From TrEMBL:
Species assigned in the record: Bionectria ochroleuca
Upper classification of the organism: Eukaryota, Fungi, Dikarya, Ascomycota, Pezizomycotina
Protein name: Alpha/beta hydrolase fold-3 domain-containing protein
One protein family per Pfam: Abhydrolase_3
Claim: Kinase is one of the keywords in the record: no
Record's keyword terms, sorted: Hydrolase, Membrane, Transmembrane, Transmembrane helix
Cell membrane keyword on record: no
Residues passing through the membrane, by range: 12-35
Alpha/beta hydrolase fold-3 domain ranges (all copies): 132-342
Length: 371
């Protein structure tokens, strides 16, 4: 059931409460954070600590008011003009097994943004390298805005030496028709779209952050199991949400660094309540929803990034070890000191730009070794 604050006039009351009460509290906290002893992790900088707390409060606001940012993404896509592109659904044979369409959940047209610009239709793209990235958002918040793309794409275009970057916004969970497997259907649609333009699979990297890191794992698992499309050259996971349970909010509170990170447990609980299938988690679906403890063999090399100051750090380490333990898998896990969740998108605010650049350089070195 949605919180009372997600409906008017209670939403307005919550906003007023935040402005009148939470803002002064945050100002007092900022004074406390000047002293390392009073920080959730004493060796974190004041800048990172304050940033994480401010973002956490905004994420809590999103969860309590069910503010999913879809309108912001749509406005951003509209302003992007020719950099915005739509991906049409493919043939029904692309969506089989756990992704098979039902009367309620069907593949749909989805869109995204190109960086630095769209590929010229008149050119042969077989030698171009492209990174197809899916933004996080706990399955319920749309994060495919141009600002996020501009934060991430410079690393992709320079450190990863890619020619293009595509920020692909899948459907977020907001009703029966967008529960699992809707988002994964969209990932297949986007990947098929990239290949249909003329890109060779060996020149395509798929990438995802947070909940979309989870989805990117699901995409590779699906392609391995069904062979409906050729496999990409590699996969990058940035702070992936690998341990997804029906009680995600409570489970998150048991993790390391919870109170120092940007995520609020309420956003994770909203995510699973909206995303998990109403019919329950069968043994076939569970690995797609929660990849932790469900490793699989893949010929696709995985680069996994996490921050040592994020709440998901322990589960990401375990997932990376489990995938590495499967014979034939190629996995590199890169951890960034002092980094909170999804630091690749907040490097300017946290002062971690150089550290994130090193992570991308490590990713490029790793994929070069696999070529």
């Amino acid at each position: 059931m949605a919180p009372i604050w997600s409906r008017q006039p209670f939403k307005a009351i919550y906003i007023a409460f935040a402005l009148l009460v939470k803002v002064p509290v945050l100002l007092l906290l900022s004074l406390r954070f000047l002293f390392p002893t009073f920080r959730p992790i004493p060796n974190l900088t004041f800048r990172i600590t304050l940033f994480a707390r401010l973002v956490r409060e905004y994420i809590l606001f999103q969860a309590q008011t069910r503010h999913n940012e879809k309108s912001a993404v749509e406005a951003s896509q509209s302003k992007a003009k020719d950099r915005f592109a739509k991906a049409q659904t493919g043939d029904a044979t692309l969506y089989t097994d756990v992704l098979e369409a039902t009367q309620v959940i069907k593949p749909a047209e989805v869109g995204g943004l190109w960086y630095p610009g769209p590929p010229p239709l008149s050119e042969d793209l077989q030698d171009e390298k492209v990174v197809l990235h899916f933004p996080g958002g706990a399955f319920v918040i749309a994060c495919g805005i141009d600002l996020n793309g501009r934060m991430f794409s410079p690393f992709v275009l320079k450190e990863l030496k890619a020619d293009r970057f595509f920020l692909a916004q899948y459907r977020v969970a907001e009703g029966p028709s967008t529960r699992f497997p809707a988002a994964l259907q969209d990932l297949v649609t986007f990947y098929h779209y990239i290949l249909s333009l003329g890109y060779k699979p060996c020149n395509v990297l798929v990438s995802g952050d947070s909940a979309a890191g989870n989805l990117a794992v699901g995409l590779v698992r699906y392609l391995e199991q069904t062979a409906v499309l050729p496999l990409p050259a590699g996969a990058m996971l940035w702070s992936p949400w690998t341990h997804v349970t029906k009680t995600a909010g409570q489970d998150y509170l048991k993790e390391t660094n919870v109170y120092a990170d940007i995520l609020a447990p309420e956003i994770l609980q909203w995510g699973v309540d909206a995303y998990l299938p109403e019919t329950g988690l069968s043994k076939d679906i569970l690995p797609y929803v929660s990849p932790l403890h469900h490793p699989f063999h893949t010929s696709v090399p995985f680069f996994i990034h996490s921050g040592k100051a994020e709440g998901f750090c322990d589960t990401i380490r375990v997932f990376a070890r489990e995938m590495s333990a499967v014979e034939g898998n190629r996995v590199r896990h890169h951890e960034t000191d002092l980094a909170p969740h999804n630091s690749a998108f907040s490097h300017l605010a946290t002062g971690l730009t150089a550290a994130i650049r090193r992570a991308f350089e490590d990713a490029q070195e790793f994929f070069d070794e696999q070529a």
